[in-house]
Amino acid sequence: MKAIVDAEACIGCGLCADACPAVFEMGDDNIAKVKLAMVPKDAEASCREAATACPTEAIKLQDS
Ligand code: F3S
Questions:
Q1: Ligand 1 nearest-atom number relative to CA 32
Q2: Mind listing the pLDDT tens digit for each residue in 13-58?
Q3: Rg for the chain (alpha carbons), in Å?
Q4: Which residue of 28, 56, 57, 61 sits with most ligand 1 atoms within 8 Å of its CB, as the best mutation to test the pocket?
Q5: Which of 29, 40, 47, 49 has its CA 20 to 30 A from that of 10?
Q6: For ligand 1, atom 4, which residue shows the shortest CA distance?
Q7: Minimal CA–CA distance to 17: which of 5, 28, 4, 32?
Q8: Is 3's C-beta closer than 6 angstroms to any atom of ligand 1?
Q9: Which domains does the chain have, with CATH numbers?
Q10: 58 CB less than 6 Å from ligand 1?
Q11: Which ligand 1 atom is nearest residue 9's CA?
Q12: Gap between the Cα atoms of 6 and 27, Å rounded
């Protein structure tokens, strides 16, 4: 699975980095960044939680 943050949609609430710190981190610009090209298997559940929690639906997940 691959995760993508739409930087235009992100409002910097930080929920994704809290829910799934293995995959998301906040950048200096307070926009979430994806740290890993592929979501590790053991982080998929928390990554889906992060996508669901995002208030602006800025996180897209692609199954691969
Ligand atoms: Fe941004 Fe959504 Fe994360 S608004 S900080 S991508 S939870």
A1: 5
A2: 999 999 999 999 999 999 999 999 999 999 999 999 999 999 999 9
A3: 10
A4: 56
A5: 40
A6: 10
A7: 32
A8: no
A9: 2-62 (3.30.70.20)
A10: yes
A11: 4
A12: 13
Nearest CA to ligand 1 atom 3: 16
The pLDDT score that the predictor gives to residue 3 is 98
Rounded Cα distance between 39 and 24, Å, is 10
Residue 64 has what pLDDT? Answer: 75
| pLDDT tier for residue 61 given thresholds of 50, 70 and 90 | very high
Nearest 10 degrees: Cα torsion 53, 45, 3, 60: -40
